[in-house]
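Project standup — Tuesday

K.O.: blocked on the structure for the chain from last sprint. Re-posting the sequence here as requested.
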Amino acid sequence: MAKKIVIIGGGFAGINVAKQVCGNPDFQVTLVDKNNYTFFPPLLYQVATGFLEASNISYPFRKMFQDKKNLSFRMGELLKIIPEQNTVILSTGELTYDYLVIATGTESNYFGMENVHKYAIPMKTVNDAIEMRNYLLQQLEKATIITDKNELSRLLTIVVAGGGPTGVEVSGMLAEMKTSVIRKDYPELRGAGDVSHIYLIDGGAQLLSPMSQKSQENTYTALSDLGVEIILNARVTDYTGDKVILNDGKIIETQNLIWAAGVTSRVFNGIPAEYYGRGRRLKADAYNKVEGSNNIYAVGDTCIQVSDPAFPEGHPQVAQVALQQGKRLGKNLVHLSKQKELIPFRYKDKGSMAIIGRNKAVADLPPNLHFKGFAAWFIWIFIHLISLVNYRNKLTTLLNWMISYFTKDQALRMIIRPSRKTR
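H.V.: unblocked you, prediction finished:
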């Protein structure tokens, strides 16, 4: 009989496991996700700033796998795992499995700061991106009728916490919007430049810490030239909703704190505490099987694997690791069904990059190549386009980018909210 594979999570890792095993008669596959679509996280910030629609970076699971007879989709959230019964409890029912693959990714890490969790703007999901776009547009509308300079400053000042790729990219996008889009759309705010600030805060001594020193220096210079005020060696310790408090006592008055300062993995009900490693990541062996389990696997950001000689402390939590682990695990499950030798996972680092603004980016590619400016920007555009799920996403995104590039504008800045919640 076909073995039952249940995959929890439809991100880079889960999708690539599914692609390797679907269509194989040895398996009956169920993909589980709380959303009915997959999305491309590296471009969330462009949805949040109104340069792309959510549909440009998303695609429905059922459409993606509609011709795969041995794969079904179940929308629901994972509530509990019962390993001794090979069962998972979902918000929408129960499933049994022969192999369980956990690929749930990460969630925002607020480091125990309840006020930050309550008031800051996260950017981990499509919902977060749409909420951020709505919120920032509403703040601009409020600012058009404010005469008090202090209140105006709190409405227009934005603090971005976290100097990784997400923080750098959203800061650069906001800085460019400030000098182009906002100036055109909001003539009432043209004289408010002296009270409007964009701060980028990071606890380290440099931005983009995993990248090369050249990339870090280029990024700092490019963002500073765009008007971003960079504060390094500083951490947010509290946020009251209108005041960001730093560890050195500095206070920035703002109603806009965008949180891109860290991620953490989930803890799963039913998985013993000793199965977890650093950052609450599930400890996995060279074949992505969770250590201590018989038939539970973890891939992507939710696992930590120390068996790779090149990464003895575990792999970075980036998209390429998730994608490659998903492919390797899928192939190994096929090998397992055919009683063939399994192949241990080895990560192939294909480089890293970040976009800063129009014609501005940095890229570090193997073996030791560094690009900046237009060349890096073009590489970033090309890589992200080909990485999107299907041709519809690629074409609509390219069209939006072309319009934005030649007009320095985009017409996607609508505040759209559902009138009521779905029952």
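K.O.: great, moving the ticket to review. The chain is about 30% helix and 25% strand. The chain has a mean pLDDT of 93.
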